[in-house]
Design brief:
The chain is built from 10 helices and 2 strands. By secondary structure, it is mostly helical. α4 packs across α9.
Length: 279
């Protein structure tokens, strides 16, 4: 026990008082970021049902992907050109940032193709269960690149995500056709998506140690417009090279509502996620 000498030379015992360090509360900006990421997950999850509906009209994966990301890019450009903040962002963006967003859009090609190709083979519920393994993939990838999960909040969030995944298993009908190729494609989707998430986080200013620095100043609408334009252009080229068609006349009339809604959900999801991680 520590001792202290008084004025008269006497020795008095001093009781050590433990100091509790309070964890700082979430700021409004951080709460807004969490809400945006949750909205992104909702919009992405809705897309699977819309893709299945588009397949029901006779469409195949590549044209669905082309029109999905064309509509997503249009959604992004609507925000980029239709808002003062978006126009300022477009005027201030530099070549490095433009190249980075085009790269992210190219990476997203793999994720989009694996997701829709899996939906063409196995039920939405099974795809969703496998695809939402991406929190684990992100945790592993972040650890391998020197980041990792820091603090109890991150681990609690990962545990909650996994609990939700386990609960979703009960929603898969008994005797469902678990096509091996479909399962493999569904696993590939979160693997690629995890790379996209980590790269996007680094671009918005997150360091490997979890701290923040001054990242890009590009707003979410402009970022989504550039990324989704690159993704749509890539799928357009791939569709044509594979002998498919991207002509609007070849799209069944019944498919348009599903394609536009699918693309809008994708565009809003990318904007919400990018804006969320930036907070």
């Amino acid at each position: 026990m520590p001792r202290r000498v008084g004025r008269a030379g006497s020795i008095r015992a001093v009781t050590a008082v433990p100091v509790r360090i309070r964890r700082p509360a979430l700021t409004r900006t951080e709460v807004a970021g969490i809400v945006l990421v949750v909205l992104a997950a909702v919009w992405l999850g809705t897309g699977g049902f819309l893709a299945k509906a588009a397949f029901g009209t006779g469409m195949t994966p590549l044209p669905v992907l082309f029109w999905r990301f064309t509509a997503a890019a249009a959604t992004g450009w609507l925000f980029a050109l239709g808002t003062a903040r978006g126009r300022r962002s477009l005027g201030a963006i530099d070549r490095r940032e433009t190249g980075a967003f085009l790269l992210l859009g190219t990476i997203y090609v793999g994720n989009g193709w694996a997701y829709v190709a899996a939906l063409a083979r196995i039920p939405v519920s099974l795809v969703a269960m496998v695809v939402y393994l991406h929190p684990v993939f992100v945790a592993v990838l972040a650890t391998l690149t020197g980041g990792g999960l820091r603090g109890s909040r991150a681990w609690v969030a990962l545990a909650v995500a996994m609990a939700g995944l386990l609960l979703s298993v009960g929603g898969i009908p008994a005797g469902v056709d678990a096509d091996p190729i479909g399962i493999a494609l569904a696993i590939l989707c979160p693997a690629i998506y995890s790379v996209w998430i980590v790269v996007a986080a680094r671009l918005t200013g997150e360091r490997r140690d979890g701290s923040r620095r001054g990242g890009t100043t590009v707003d979410a609408g402009t970022a989504a417009a550039l990324m989704m334009s690159a993704t749509a252009a890539t799928f357009g080229i791939v569709t044509l090279l594979s002998g498919g068609s991207i002509a609007p006349a070849d799209v069944p009339p019944d498919a348009w509502p599903y394609l536009v809604a699918f693309g809008a959900c994708s565009g809003l999801a990318v904007q919400a996620f990018y804006a969320g991680v930036d907070r």
